[in-house]
């Protein structure tokens, strides 16, 4: 028989996995996009030129990470994952507000790695503090 806490814990783990894999996918995207645009020029004029999908993807990733990390923070009180998420957001804001798209490869890659690191550290803290 599954208790309510075990049931909630299992759903949280699934959501964390989704968030982790989305941040890895974001890192792959940030690294692969310049290569793909260079190797396959016709992609540069269609999907890659429209940045609205990218903003939705980044916004959704940060929102998902924020919710997951905040819920887990209340369980293990480790602030490092939240600080890494804030660092990721700062890198993206620096790109959008000051640096421009020419630095997207650097800021996007660092931001995605910070989110992935936040998930990993959060997972380790959760496993360490969990009495399940």
Report what the structure shows:
It is a single chain. The protein has 132 residues and is mostly helical. The protein has helices at 4-39, 41-44, 52-76, 80-99, 104-129. The chain has one domain. The chain is built from five helices and no strands. α3 (52-76) runs antiparallel to α4 (80-99).
What features would you highlight for this structure?
5 helices, single chain, mainly alpha, 132 residues
Query: How far apart are the termini?
Result: 14 Å
**How many runs of DSSP E, i.e. beta strands?**
0
Write down the secondary-structure element order.
HHHHH
Total helix count? 5
Q: Low-confidence parts, pLDDT < 50 over ≥5 residues?
A: none
* Sheet having the most strands: none
Give the radius of gyration: 17 Å
Strand content: under 5%
General shape: elongated
Mean pLDDT: 77
Helix content: over 70%
Instruction: Decide which structural class fits the backbone.
Output: mainly alpha
Return the domain count.
1
């Amino acid at each position: 028989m599954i208790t309510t806490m075990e049931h909630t814990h299992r759903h949280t783990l699934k959501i964390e996995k989704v968030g982790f894999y989305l941040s890895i996918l974001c890192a792959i995207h940030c690294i692969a996009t310049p290569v793909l645009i260079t190797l396959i020029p016709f992609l540069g004029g269609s999907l890659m030129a429209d940045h609205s999908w990218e903003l939705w993807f980044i916004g959704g990733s940060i929102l998902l990470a924020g919710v997951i990390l905040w819920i887990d923070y209340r369980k293990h009180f480790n602030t490092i994952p939240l600080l890494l998420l804030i660092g990721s957001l700062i890198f993206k804001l620096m790109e959008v507000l000051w640096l421009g798209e020419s630095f997207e490869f650097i800021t996007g890659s660092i931001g995605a790695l910070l989110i992935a690191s936040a998930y990993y550290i959060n997972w380790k803290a959760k496993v360490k503090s969990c009495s399940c």
